[in-house]
Amino acid sequence: MPDYDVVTCGEPMVLFSADTAGPLRHVSSFRKHAAGAEFNFSVGLARLGLRPGYITRVGDDEFGHYILACMRMEGLDTSLVRVDPERPTGVYFKECRGLGDPRVYYYRRGSAASALSQEDVDPACVEGARLVHFTGITPVLSPLCRNTALYLVGLASSRRVPLSFDPNVRLRLIDRNRVREVMMPFVAAAELLLLNEAELELLFGTRDPVTASREVFGMGPQMLVVKRGARGAVAVSARTGEAVEGEAYCPSRFVDPVGAGDGFDAGFVFGYLSGWALEDCLRLANFVGACATTVMGDYEGYPFLWELEAIGLWPRGRVGLTGS
Ligand code: KDG
C-alpha cells in the first residue's frame, strides 16, 4: 500500500449536469462528470501534488468503472476502492434554474458507497498519514457509514493523525434537527474545522467566527475556518485567538458554485500541512474554490501546481509538502 499524505472516505457519484436551464423535466441533454465531496477534495489535493488515499465503494457497473477511470486520470490511487458486485454506483443530477444555487437530485439510496463498512477500511492506510479528512456527508449516508466514519476517526486518533472536518450539511440527506447530534462527535475529534456561515449558525447559533470560536475551541479543534463565498473566508486559530481574513478570488467567468467548498478545503489543507501562514492558506483555498466555479463539473476547474506557480500564487519563499 502506498503512503498517503491525507486519507479520506466518502461516496463518489456520477453527476449529470443539465445542458440547458430550467426544470429537469424539460431538459433533454446532460453532461456526465464524476463528483462527490471527498472525491473532489482528493482531486484538489492530487492536483497540488499530494497523495490522497480515498476509501470508497463503487458498483460493478458502467458508472463505477467510469469513476475508477476518472480517478486514474487524476492520478489518484485506486487501491482503497472496493467494487461491489450487488449495489449500484450513486448518481446525481444538477438542475440549473438561474435562481441562486443549482438544485440537485440524488439517486443514491442503497448505493455501493452507502454500504461502506469497517471491512472496507484497512487500518494500515492511516499509518504515516499527516491528516484524515471527513465531511458530514459520509455519516449521513446510512447508519453503517456513520459507524465506519467513527471507526476511521478512532483509528486516526489512536495513531495521533490529526483530523479535519467539514460538516458539508446537505439538508436533502439529514433533518435540520439532527444536524448537531450527528456532526458534533466529528467536530469534537477534529483539529481543523472548515465550514460555511450557514453551517456555523446551525451548529453554533452564530455567523460570527470569533464568537463561535469560543465554543469550538472548548470542544477540541485548534483551527476554525469559515467560508463566506464571494466575501472570502476567515480563519481563527486557538493559539493566537486572532481572526485572519482572506479575500475571495474573483474569476473572470462564473458558471456553477458546486465543488467550490471542497476545492477550498483542499487548498487550505495543503497550505496548513505545509506550515504556511494563515493568509497564504486562505489565499490558496479561495483560489482553488474560485477555480471550481468556472466550469459546470465539480472539480474539473481546480488548478494544477504548475498553474499556481505560473500566475505567482505560490507564496514567496514557501515550499509545499512536495518541496516543489
Ligand atoms: O460538494 C459537492 C458535493 O455536494 C457533490 O459532489 C455531491 O457529494 C455530493 C453530495 O453528497 O452532495
The main sheet comes to: 9 strands, mixed
N-to-C order of helices and strands: EEEHEHEEEEHEHEHHEEEHHH
Distance between the termini: 24 Å
- Rg (CA only): 18 Å
Annotation field: number of helices: 9
Helix content: 25-40%
* Biggest sheet, spatial arrangement of strands: 5-4-1-8-9-10-11-12-13
* Ligand inventory: 2-keto-3-deoxygluconate
Shape: globular
Report the structural category. Answer: alpha/beta
Count of DSSP strands: 13
Uncertain runs are none
Write a concise synopsis of the structure shown.
The chain has 324 residues and is α/β, with parallel strands linked by helices.
Fold blueprint:
Layout: E1 6-9, E2 13-18, E3 30-35, H1 37-47, E4 52-59, H2 62-73, E5 81-84, E6 90-95, E7 103-107, E8 131-135, H3 143-158, E9 163-166, H4 179-189, E10 192-196, H5 197-204, H6 209-219, E11 223-227, E12 233-237, E13 243-246, H7 260-273, H8 278-292, H9 305-310
Parallel strand pairs: 1-4, 1-8, 2-6, 4-5, 8-9, 9-10, 10-11
Antiparallel strand pairs: 2-3, 6-7, 11-12, 12-13
Helix pairs in contact: 1-7, 7-8
The structure holds 2-keto-3-deoxygluconate.
The site of 2-keto-3-deoxygluconate has 12 residues, from α1 and α7.
Q: How would you describe this protein?
A:
By secondary structure, the protein is an alpha/beta fold. Helix content is 32%, strand content 21%. The protein has helices spanning 37-47, 62-73, 143-158, 179-189, 197-204, 209-219, 260-273, 278-292, 305-310; strands spanning 6-9, 13-18, 30-35, 52-59, 81-84, 90-95, 103-107, 131-135, 163-166, 192-196, 223-227, 233-237, 243-246. The strands form 2 sheets. Strands 5-4-1-8-9-10-11-12-13 form a 9-stranded mixed β-sheet, with helices on both faces. Strands 3-2-6-7 form a 4-stranded mixed β-sheet. α3 (143-158) links the parallel β8 and β9 (163-166). It binds 2-keto-3-deoxygluconate. 2-keto-3-deoxygluconate (KDG) binds at residues 35-37, 40, 92, 137, 170, 258-259, 261-262, 298.
